[in-house]
Write a structure and sequence with these properties.
Radius of gyration: 20 Å
Shape: globular
Strand order of the largest sheet: 1-8-5-4-2-3
Number of helices: 17
Distance between the termini: 40 Å
Structural class: alpha/beta
Organism: Selenomonas ruminantium
Largest sheet: 6 strands, parallel
Helix content: 40-55%
GO molecular function, one term: metal ion binding
Keywords: Oxidoreductase
Domain Fe-containing alcohol dehydrogenase-like C-terminal: 191-354
CATH superfamily of the largest domain: Dehydroquinate synthase-like - alpha domain
Order of helices and strands: EHHEHHEHEHHEEEEHHHHHHHHHH
CATH class of the largest domain: Mainly Alpha
InterPro entries: ADH_Fe/GldA (IPR001670), ADH_Fe_C (IPR056798), Alcohol_dehydrogenase_Fe (IPR039697)
Amino acid sequence: MNFTWEVPTRIHFGTHICEGALAAERNCLKGCKALLVYTGHTLRENDTLAKLQGLLQENGCTEVLTYGGHGANPEISEAEAAGKQILKHGVNLIVALGGGSAIDLAKGAAVAAASNISLRDHLVKGIPAPSAILPLIALPTTAGTGSELSKGAILSDRELKIKGGIRGKSLAPKIAIVDASFTWSMPEKLTMETGFDALAHAIESYLSRKANLHSEQLSLQAIRLIGENLPKLKRDLSDREAREKMSYASMLMGMNLYNVGNCLPHRMQYPIGAATGTSHAMGLAALYPVWIKEEYRACPDKVMNVFRYLLNRTPHSAQEAEELMANFLMELGLCVSLEELGVKEGEIAAMVEKISGDISVDPAGGEDGICSKLYIAAM
C-alpha cells in the first residue's frame, strides 16, 4: 500500500469562482507583467478574454499582453513565438485561458523562454523542461484534458509530422482556477470529446501498472461521475450541475496524470494526431474499443470493474468489453475508425516508430507487436 502522492498546484474549484480566486491570489499577481495565452477566437469574441485581462489588472498585474494560438494541436513554432514575446517584453507571469491546447501552448512558451535549446530538441530527444521556468496560472475552459494539473506539454512539429510531450515537474501550473462556468458555452462536439478524454485518463490511470490505492479510488470516482454526467450533457447541454461534475472529474484526473500517467491509447494517439491533424479525443475514440478488448485479456477483473462504474454493466468476455465501449462511444457521437480519420494502412509502420515512452506500464503493453495490432484492428 506504500505510495508517494504529489499535487504541487494550488487549486480553486467551483462555479463562478474566477473573480474571487484571482482576488485571493493578489499577492502572486501584484507587480507582474503577464502574458495571457489562449487559443481560437471564441474567447475573444465573447469578451471572456477582455474580462480576464481586466481582472488580472484589478488584482495587481501592471500589464497583460495576449498571445493567441490557432488550434487543437499547438505547434512548437507557436510556443517559440510566444517565448520570444515573453523575453522581448520582460514578462514574468504566464496565464493560460482555454482548453488543453491553450494550457500546453503556455507551458511550451515557458520552456521556450527559459531553455537554451530548441523545443524540437526537447520534443524529439525527450529532454525534460528546465527546472526553473516562469510561474503559470491555468484557467481551463473545457472539462477533459487535466492539463491544469499535469507536468506535461503536448506539442506538435508540423515539419517532422510528430506530436509528443515535453515533461518536467516545473511544468505543473502554480495555480489552477477550475471554474465550471467557463465550460457552459462549450458546443456538443467539444463537450463530448473533452469529456471522453477525461474518461480515458480515468480508465488508463486505473489500469496502469503504476496505479496505487489512492489513484485507483480517484479513477473509479471519475469513471462513475463521467458515466452519469456526460450522457446527461449529450441530452441537455444546459445541465449546469452535470457541467460542474464533469469539471470536477477532469480535475481529479489531472492529479492522476501528474502522479500515474496514461497507457497505450494516449501514446498511440500522438502519431495519429500528427499524421491527420484530427483531435486528440477522436484518435482515442478510434483506438478505445480494440484496446479495451486487449486489456480485458490482460486484466479482466479491473476491466469488469471499469464497466461496473461506467455503465453498471459487467462484460464477461473481451468481445463484450469491446462492444460495450463501442456502443458507449456511439451514443456520444464519437465512434469512428482510423480510416475515417484519414489514416492509411501504409502509414501504420511509420506511426509505430513514432510512439515514445514506456509502454510496459500498460497491462497489454508487453505483447510483441501490440501497437501495430491495435492500429490495424482500429482501421
